[in-house]
Amino acid sequence: MSAGLQIMADSGNISLDSEMFNYSLISINDVACTYSRDKPSGFLTYSGIAPILVVYSPSGFVGLFEIIRNGDGSYTASFYTALSTFKAYVFDRVPQSSSGNIGFQTFNASGDLIFDSGRKYLNVRGQATASGITGQPTSNYGFAFTSLGVQFGGDVPNGLTNVLISCYRSRPDGVDISQSIVGVAPNYTQGLIIPPTVCLVDLGRL
Question: Distances in Å between the alpha carbon of 33 and those of 39, 52, 62, 68, 186?
Fold first, then answer.
């Protein structure tokens, strides 16, 4: 950056840069679910400029079917789980309205508010793949899906194959991963795998 503000962490990583947008907490939602083996169990519709959805589910595993962009600035996420409810956190670019009269704010060259000390922010701690991620300092960990994690395999009648999706569960030291059979699909090669990936998010300070 040629001019502006940068704040560095002890590790040397950038914590705050006046040319970069920060993601702040927009809402915390209770997602009600009704279990079904072959279709989504729960849904959440939310809005934002470029929102990030984080699931917190210490009581059981949750998988993502899809996220649909509705065309009106809103998104609808559908989930697979045997839980009756779990929490979903929505993060997005910092709202342009001030959070109060006391604190610290940073603007970019265009005059956009990119940091407001009165808000709470997304804290990514790592990336979990097919083996999950554990061994983190004790906290409340959620997960943001970056890849659905789908596998096709197992013979069923009429030339169909089982569809397995990756589901995650929050732990005090990270997240676990499991696979669940959620239905069948035609014309897919058995053994085809879309690798699962989630970002580990520390929700302990929210």
Answer: 11, 21, 11, 18, 27
